[in-house]
What we know:
Elements: H1 2-16, H2 22-34, H3 36-94, E1 97-98, E2 106-112, E3 115-120, E4 126-133, E5 141-149, H4 151-156, E6 164-168, E7 174-178, E8 185-192, E9 200-210, H5 216-238, H6 242-266, H7 275-310
Parallel strand pairs: 5-7
Antiparallel strand pairs: 1-5, 2-3, 3-6, 4-5, 7-8, 8-9
Amino acid sequence: xxxxxxxxxxxxxxxxxxxxxxxxxxxxxxxxxxxxxxxxxxxxxxxxxxxxxxxxxxxxxxxxxxxxxxxxxxxxxxxxxxxxxxxxxxxxxxxxxxxxxxxxxxxxxxxxxxxxxxxxxxxxxxxxxxxxxxxxxxxxxxxxxxxxxxxxxxxxxxxxxxxxxxxxxxxxxxxxxxxxxxxxxxxxxxxxxxxxxxxxxxxxxxxxxxxxxxxxxxxxxxxxxxxxxxxxxxxxxxxxxxxxxxxxxxxxxxxxxxxxxxxxxxxxxxxxxxxxxxxxxxxxxxxxxxxxxxxxxxxxxxxxxxxxxxxxxxx
Length: 315
Ligand SMILES: [Zn+2]
């Protein structure tokens, strides 16, 4: 018996892997019927192997899941990237190209007792009228007019259609100024006085007032750089604590996104005549880019994790 046990024990590893002939298997199974010790030994060999195999399967499954997540994220990432490109292209083709002053750019007509009509030259595809009180002109009101076109309109609008708008002047004198937004002086288009004999008096004179581009966007850019430097300092001091470091990186990505979108929208020019447009576009674009950067950050860490799994450092 003892001798047969030794033979069976030698065969057990092969038998557990189904690597023995039918005859040998039959011999081993016959022996199990008579020998509980060998049967128990066999179960001991078999158990850890199946546990090990289950472990491998689980970690493969985890790896598969992570790969799937990466694939989904890559798709989303591509979508974000394409959207960023589209928004940037939109920003470029819709940027206002301000019309320089010329005679006939804006015609002023009286349409009723309290209303004036402005008619723009056919090349103007958009405009803005800012009607406000100005203490320098006493009782009279002042209307600052800007007119522009865009690359998009230049390429695709049929042109020739004249834009017009009505201005409510409430029977008060009114000064109409054209703001060229090119660093030049503002031009007085006409004076309107409801009590004068010649109610609309064309002017065409400059009043020595220059509307300067606004610097606010430049300040926001400086703020973004300051925030970035601050987060880098925080990162340097917490980089050994993985969780805080991760969150610091996530926060730091926003100023990066803002700086990138600022340069896409405004180029290297720190000033802007169309501050609201530029700022809202920059914020919108920065949110998109931020989403993309967060995803990229995430994928990068996931890939690191997977490398670690492959090297057997995890699980
Ligand atoms: Zn035995």
